[in-house]
Amino acid sequence: MSDETAEAVKPAKRNVFKSLEIDTRLLGMIGAFLLVCIVFNLLTEGRFLTPRNVFNLTIQTVSVAIMATGMVFVIVTRHIDLSVGALLATTTAVMAMTQTQWIPQMLGLELGHPMIPWITILVGLLTGALIGAFQGYLIGYQAIPAFIVTLGGLLIWRNVAWHLTDGQTIGPLNETYLLFGGINGTLGVFWSWAVGLAASVAALFAVVQGRRTKVGHGFQVKPAWAEVVVAVIIVGAILGFVAILNAYQVPERVVARDPALYGCVDAEGCVAAYGIPYSVLLLIAVAIVMTVVAQRTRLGRYIFATGGNPDAAELSGINTKFLTVKVFAIVGVLCALGGIVASARLGYHTNDIGILDELRVIAAAVIGGTALSGGIGTIYGAIIGALIMQSLQSGMAMVGVDAPYQNIVVGTVLVLAVWIDIQYRKYSGAK
Amino acid sequence: MATPLVEMKDISISFGGVKAVDKVSIDLYPGEVVGLLGHNGAGKSTLIKILSGAYKMDSGEIWIEGKKAEINSPRDSRDYNIETIYQTLALADNLDAASNLFLGREMVTPFGFVDDGRQEAETRKIMARLNPNFKKLKEPVSALSGGQRQSVAIARAVYFKAKTLIMDEPTAALGVHETKMVADLIQELKKQGLGIFLISHDTREMMDLCDRVAVMKNGHLIGAERVEDVTEDDILSMIIMGKNPKDKAA
What we know:
- The complex is a heterodimer of chains A (431) and B (250).
- With 431 residues, chain A is mostly helical.
- Chain A is 74% helix and 0% strand.
- In chain A, helix 4 (84-107) packs across helix 14 (320-346).
- Helices cover 34% and strands 25% of the residues of chain B.
- Chain B has helices at residues 44-51, 74-79, 97-101, 116-130, 146-159, 176-191, 203-209, 232-241, 245-249, and strands spanning 6-15, 18-28, 33-37, 59-64, 67-69, 82-85, 164-168, 195-199, 212-217, 220-226.
- In chain B, a hairpin with a 2-residue loop joins strand 1 (6-15) and strand 2 (18-28).
- The relative contact order of chain B is 0.17.
- The A-B interface holds A 213-214, 216-219, 292, 296-298, 300-302, 304-309, 311-318, 375-376, 429-431 and B 52, 54, 73-75, 78, 84, 86, 88-95, 99, 103-106, 108, 112-114, 116-118, 120-121, 140, 142-143.
């Protein structure tokens, strides 16, 4: 009896999803993420889903999430990159040395000069791109397996970082540079709302524009109500996120240190909130750019085609060797960006920065639905994957699970996530 | 006679000491279908892959419409209006029909982004002509049947206004109805003045579709004869014995 009703309900449900044209896998991942959040919220008696913890969670995720978007491209083209953590360390070592020693000594700019952070970031991004491109050259043109090249890279770049800094912790870092770390650089209430509203308008515009293009070509469009529902969900998510971050107030003693910074004359009765951190804005920008590259550019199309069928890609006149160089160069740049956020969050370059990040990044991409067999993966999936990993870890830490047990759980979740994904693909018939 | 569309002269290629193609010369005229026959490993596909730019020949010359051509990559071959339908179809299974059709030659918007809308509209148009039953435009081609996948591969060749078409076993994976569709299409393209190289194992089918058949064995060209001048048995003996019956007569 109960079976019958279940079957009768199913088609109707599927129709709703169909008319909404929402990716069911995206829905599943968001569901898993929310489940993790709710479970930990119950276990911690409401301490997990406080504005403060949500804020911390987002800034802790940024560095890995930025790199994971690049790992999607690598895995989609049937490669792997084991060197991202080490590459991050080399770029942060270069950037730390650039801003504290090389620029002041070689260019003669004094510490605190306004140009220092920007030159530093440029040097860091260039370093990442060059190292990444070199690894890509070895993989694409010299046909050394990516696993080997980047396993070598893991050992090499970790210790190049050590060599550059003589194994010392380098800091303090430039104040402007530190703004990318998270809590040190946030938009504040007003600008957070402004960004949130602008993003909502842009999202609505994209929905309308997308529909107009489809109508223009005479394609079928989803019903208007579905379009409205999707738009409401998107705008609700954006503004809800901003509202949560804006609800995290700056502690009174921090305001008291420098009330003018928060627009108050007097510390007494001055209320301020953090709002959106710059590092999160950076992640959002990276996510948008990478998604556009993946879906709307020839480069992205070739990356996915090569992953789906390397022979076909080559026969279609795609230069797959150079494509490999480009993909690894992109990852190199993203490692440098992730490095900026990671070192700015710590305030220093340390020897152990980014250790085991390669595994977190790969796990994030894979939990997010990137298939190691190539050709399949999404940027948003990798970011949600990074969020799920980080929530698990910080949630377990809050509950008081010992570190070894934390790793057991994370490892299990990784395998389980891939298994669920495989089952889902079997069930839905997608390959 | 008119200028040949394609002339391949004394083409040779070796793989690690094995001469896969040994001094083969063959030509193709506009509006003509030339069939390539032979055992597996006779060198048919290798010869054709030289023309389509997938392999680089060791020696020999290729002339296209009376001019010497340099074909070093699939892109070069396409620039000479040579399109190839590979036996494996060469489709990226994870992409949809439109992305496959335009792979390597995407339509772009003024800002340089891939114009998926226009690509899909064009794909709909050409598919309506080639295979009216084709409806799964949004799905990855891995979800399509053998015949539908074949239509995508054929559409890719036809859409870009090929002058020379290479078809490597176009009907190997198809049902009766779809095989008929491919045969009709070959006739139509022939009328439009295309030259077609056809590779197949099916001798009878080749006798029906081709104007000339060329038989290869162990990398050598045994002979290229007009279908009117030979019987099916002649061709079979060329394939198996590696001897041209005409040589015997002479």
